[in-house]
């Protein structure tokens, strides 16, 4: 449902809004949340961004980051915020279960007007207003469209634009994924017009890591990369112990899954990581191999055609074995 008059009225009459993101928030979820935060602050006195678990530090430079709260560490505050809110924005996810445990707190509030802006496949019908476009490069790009439709582009400040650009640049792999469109570049042109500095943002995001992270990359590629030439596939797997050895910080494995795709024949790359006893999967592909289908079928996951995630309920090495047993089913498609 998309009633623009109604959503405009709801925003103008709201006194307390909350903005919710998915588990393991990334550049697009934090970027879109903070872009929306800066936009809503023009109309609404209280606006609170909430993440299910802590957001990665490589995004800490974004204006408003320090005001976000996470459910994992601040359950009481989050419950209060959600109970009192009259407007809830769900950004960058297509179903409430993507919030993990935060979903419970979300359901405590039955009165608030719910806005959902997202670009994932097969969205659930859980919002009063839903802007869902699977072809959009990023939720940040859709937040721009949302603001533009409400004739609010004059409210786009440098702070808002920096948050918005962050989601666009990270979700498009720096404008290289096929989701990058003319419109994506037009939106960025508008942000540059406002005064954002793309070079500086790139420095903040990509050239701000620790030496341990660089060494973890070397270790992963040298010691934890399996290549399956028969299936044009590769797996990188990292146990909790591996990560601890390199003083793992949230965000340190961001982008790692893309490296095997730089090899000419590799069509699919999988990253398996173990954190706090949980095994997480990241899938990436080149061309028309649909990793979201594989991930949904075997790893309770989903996402986009070429980028998906999921979870595994067995250990890291068992997950590698499970994948190896699944590859033959996809041999034809992986060789197409
Ligand atoms: P990433 O590998 O960067 O964590 O996720 C890649 C894509 O898959 C993102 O668009 C993300 O929203 C989606 N995704 C990641 N984990 C899950 C999951 O557990 N379930 C579903 N449905 N989608 C996921
Ligand atoms: Mn996204």
Structure characteristics:
336 residues; alpha/beta; inorganic pyrophosphatase (n-terminal core); Diaminopimelate Epimerase, Chain A, domain 1; 2 domains; 6-stranded parallel β-sheet; 6-stranded mixed β-sheet; 13 helices; 12 strands; binds guanosine-5'-monophosphate; binds manganese (II) ion
In short:
This protein has 13 helices and 12 strands.
Tell me what the structure shows.
Helix content is 38%, strand content 18%. It is an alpha/beta fold. It has a 6-stranded parallel sheet, with helices on both faces. Strands 7-8-9-10-12-11 form a 6-stranded mixed sheet. The protein folds into 2 domains: 4-206, Alpha-Beta Complex (inorganic pyrophosphatase (n-terminal core)), CATH 3.90.1640; 211-334, Roll (Diaminopimelate Epimerase, Chain A, domain 1), CATH 3.10.310.30.
**Global Rg:** 20 Å
Per the principal axes of the C-alpha atoms, what is the gross shape? globular
Q: Given the structure, what is the number of helices?
A: 13
Instruction: Summarize the main sheet.
Output: 6 strands, parallel
* Proper CATH architecture of the largest domain: Alpha-Beta Complex
Structural class: alpha/beta
Query: Could you list the spans in which at least 5 consecutive residues all have pLDDT below 50?
Result: none
Number of domains: 2
- Strand residue percentage: 15-25%
What is the element string, with H for helices and E for strands? Answer: HEHEEHEHEEHHHHHEEHEEHEEHH
Strand line-up in the sheet with most strands? 3-2-1-4-5-6
CATH topology of the largest domain: inorganic pyrophosphatase (n-terminal core)
Q: Supply the CATH class of the largest domain.
A: Alpha Beta
Distinct ligands, ions and cofactors found in the model: guanosine-5'-monophosphate, manganese (II) ion
The CATH homologous superfamily of the largest domain is called: inorganic pyrophosphatase (n-terminal core)
